[in-house]
Amino acid sequence: MALFDIDILESRVSKYETNHIHMVVDGDITYPITNMDNQQYGTFFHEYIHYMQHMTTLFGVKICAMYNKMFILYRDYIINNETIKLPLELWKNHEGLMKFIDFFKGEKGSRTCNYNIDAIEISDKEISDAKKNKKAVKIGIYDFENGLAIENGFYFGYMCIIESMAHLIQSFINDKLYHATIPYCSVELICKSIYSEISNDKKMMISLCFCSLMFDNSGVAFFDLVELSKKNQSLNGYELYKKILKDKSVTHMGKEMPMYRALCLFLDDLKKSISSAIGCKLYYYEEVIENCKNEIRSGNCVLLDVLYHADISNKNMFSSVFEKVYGYFIEANNLTIMPMNNSKEPPKPYIETASMIGLELIFKRMKSYSNNTKCEWFKICSKAQYTPDDKTSEECLCNQWQKNERCIMTEVLRYFKIKDKEYIQEK
Question: Residue 16 pairs with which residues in a beta bridge?
C-alpha cells in the first residue's frame, strides 16, 4: 500500500509490500514459525493478514494491479531512455494512475488521531456524502478529558478497515496486545455506536471488515454491511461472507456478474500483469493465485473457516493450512524466508521472487531524493545473510548502477538491461 501513500514511501515499518508477495517485519523473527512466542507470532500473522487482504479481496487485487502498472511504466521508461534524471515520478504524468491514486487518497481515511476518544458521533449525512463523493466517512469524536467536541475527529476508510481486521485477529493470539485506537480499534468503536450487539463479537467484526474490502470504498461499505447483518441476524460472519460473494454483483468490462466471478477474473489479470512486470512465466505464484481462485469459486474462505471452526492462534495451523494455500515470503532484520519449492519447477519460486524484489528495489531507488538514496537491502547485505562476508560498498549508498560486485540490485539491473544507463540525481 505504500505506493499510494507518498509520505510513508521511505519509512520502514512492519508492513506487507503489496504486489511482491512480500512481508516486511520490522525486527527479528524466530524460524520455524512454531518456535515463535505469542507476541512474535501475533505480529507475524498481523502482517500475513495484510497479504491475504490483497490476494483475496476485490479492492486488494486492484491495488496490486496498480503496482504492476507502475513497475511496468518505470521499467519501460528506463529501457527506452539512455539518460535517467532522478527522482523519477512517472505517475504524475499517467492519467490512469493519478486517477486511482487520487481516489485512494480520498477513501483510505485516517491513520492517526491526536485526541482522546471517549465517544463518537456518526451522521447518516456524512455516510451519504462519503458515498456520493467517494471519500472516507467523517466521524465526530468527544474528548471528555479535555472538554472537546471535534466534528472531523477521524476519517473511517480503508486504513481503519485493514488495520482493525488485522488487530482483531492478532488479539486472538496475543491477549496483551496494545495498538493505537485509530486506526486499529476503529471498527470496535463504530460497532459499539451503531450495532452494540456485535461489539464484543470479534469474529463478526472481522468478517464485516473482510467483506468491506470487496468494495472500492470500504469505509462506506462497512456501514452498508452492518445494516445487512442487522437484517440477517441468524447468519454468522462466515455465512454473511458467502452470501455477499454470491448475491452482490459487480460490473466488469461492461458485464454484470456475481462478485466471486469478478474476483476470479481480476486474479487472472493480476497473474498476467505480474508476469509482464517481471518478464517471465509464473509457476509458483500461478499456483498461489489458482489456490485463491479455487477458494473463491467454492464460496469458501480459509481464514474465516479457521476463525469459526478451528483455533487461529495455533501455530501449527499456519504451516498446515495457510502456508499451503497462499505461500509466503518474509523479510525480517535477521533473516529472509523465501517461498517453498512448488511441484512444477523447483527453482522458479526463487527466480520469481528475486525478480519481484529487484523490481521493487529499482522503483524505490528511481523515485528517491538525494537525501535517501541508500539501497533498501543495504542492512540485509551488510549482515552477510547470503554471502560469507559483507559485500556492501560505497555504491550501495547512492550510485548502485556503478557497483560491479554481484548483488540483488546489480543482478536485476542487468536482468532488465538497464545497468549501463546514465543516471543523474538532480534533487
Answer: 23
Report d(CA 150, CA 141) in Å as an integer. 5
Residues above pLDDT 70, as percent of the chain: 91
Check pLDDT > 90 for residue 385: no
The β-bridge relationship of strands 255-258 and 249-252 is antiparallel
What's the start-to-end Cα distance of the chain, in Å?
A: 25
Neighbours of 61 (CB within 10 A): 23
Calculate the CA dihedral of residues 200, 196, 178, 316 and round it to 10 degrees. Answer: 30
d(CA 79, CA 226): 49
Domain boundaries, the chain: 2-337, 370-425
Question: How far apart are alpha carbons 162 and 218 in whole angstroms?
Answer: 9
Q: Nearest CA to 365 among 412, 332, 323, 301? A: 412
Q: Residues 303, 44, 40, CA angle at the centre, nearest 5°?
A: 125
Q: Distance (Å, rounded) from C-alpha 283 to C-alpha 342?
A: 8
Q: What distances in angstroms separate CA 134 from CA 65, 123, 129, 157, 255, one per listed residue? A: 20, 16, 8, 10, 22
Q: Return d(Cα 156, Cα 164) in angstroms, integer.
A: 11
Q: Which phi and psi angles does 150 have, rounded to 5°?
A: -115, 115
The alpha helices in 14-108, defined as continuous H runs, are 38-55, 58-80, 95-107
Instruction: Confirm if 288 and 327 have CB atoms less than 8 A apart.
Output: yes
- Number of residues assigned to the chain: 427
Three cell numbers written together for 10 = 521511505
Q: What percent of the chain has pLDDT over 90?
A: 69
**In sequence order, which residues have a C-beta less than 8 Å from that of residue 109 and are 6 or more positions away?**
136, 137, 154, 155, 156, 157, 158, 159, 160, 183, 219
**Residue 425, pLDDT above cutoff 60:** yes
**What average pLDDT does range 72-98 have in this prediction?**
95
Cell numbers 519501460 correspond to 76
pLDDT tens profile 20-31: 567 778 778 898
Closest to 203 (Cα-Cα) out of 305, 307, 321, 317 = 307
